[in-house]
User: Fold this.
Amino acid sequence: MKSRCTYQLPVLERLVYIVCGVGSVLAICYHVLIASSKYQHRLNWHDLKSGWSFLTYKKDVSNFEWTFWYGYFWKTLPWHVGHVVLGRLLEGLNLTQYRQLFFLTFSLLWLFCGILVSVWRSASSRNHSIYTVF
Assistant:
């Protein structure tokens, strides 16, 4: 099987990239922590709910984007994982020439299943049969 990587970077250069990347994320997290501690008195305490169990900080749920995108992430995660698994499977079976066809079929099937689940949920929430929706 052909390797995707045509040139391996030197170890020192990879190490520099890793340190810079991880260091940037840690610096950003630190500055967010400092800013949230600095403006803690301006928060509405009714908008705070308990967060992750291993952190002692509470989660602010007043921002719509955070709550929307968090839920959206978990709803779309299986689709993204399916694409990665399908791509690796096709690569392992040397069927890369059919990759676009398989991805299109997978996406259309996923969309169709999502529509069916949505229709089924809306029908069951109204206490009707699923056939009355159509």
Remarks:
- The CA atoms of residues 44 and 60 lie 9 Å apart.
- The longest strand covers residues 48-50.
- Helices lie at 11-38, 64-92, 99-125.
